Amino acid sequence: MRTEGTVTPDSPCEATATNAVDVLVMRQTIALVLPAEDELPPGLDVGTLTETLRGHMELIVPEVETKALALHKEDIPRYCALACVSEANGKLRARAGQGAYAALVFARKLARSLATLCDHYETLTSMPICLACDRMIHRRSESMPYDRVSNFGGAVTSHLHAACEPRTSYLTRAPRPG
């Protein structure tokens, strides 16, 4: 059972206790703000969610920046992560416009920026992410490598939760003759 800010050990996405950046909690907050509907679900306050998103961004921005700056100057992940950090800092300085709709639009901009920061954080910290369910694979979770050919040539090794393996038939299915 999940409690505020923690994940149970049997969860495939368990966060480490020493990790100050809890990507799982951040992604759960993002999911509240980025539903397909035009309005937030009842009972959620856009102001509170905006401040929560800001707090998450204030935690993760320096982590992503520090990890990106440790890479070689000509490393593409460094360049992309630092561009994202710059964009996020701009959003942290900005304020929502007048009215409820403008506040919701602004919260969604913060959520999209935070989602990208989470992606960069996961990449820069080499957190294995399940190719099928897009969740972190904890070191104690049963998982398996999944080798595939990259669009840019060469092989890429991704990972899958063992429980997600049956869901990956679409990844290995050969094209139908036409």
Number of helical elements: 5
| Oligomeric nature of the chains | single chain
Radius of gyration: 18 Å
Q: What is the percentage of strand-forming residues?
A: 5-15%
If strands are numbered along the chain, what order do they take across the biggest sheet? Answer: 1-2
- Name the structural class: mainly alpha
Distance between the termini: 48 Å
Helix content class:
40-55%
Low-pLDDT ranges: 1-18, 149-156, 169-176
User: How can the largest sheet be summarized?
Assistant: 2 strands, antiparallel
Number of strands: 2
Task: Give the rounded overall mean pLDDT.
Answer: 75
H/E element sequence = HHHHEEH
What is the approximate shape? flat
Attribute tags:
178 residues; mainly alpha; 46% helix; disordered C terminus
How would you describe what is shown here?
A hairpin with a 5-residue loop joins β1 (143-149) and β2. Helix content is 46%, strand content 8%. The N and C termini lie far apart (48 Å). The radius of gyration is 18 Å and the shape is flat. The protein is mainly alpha-helical and 178 residues long. It is built from 5 helices and 2 strands. Strands 1-2 form a two-stranded antiparallel ribbon. It has helices at 23-33, 46-69, 76-93, 100-124, 169-172, and strands spanning 143-149, 155-161.
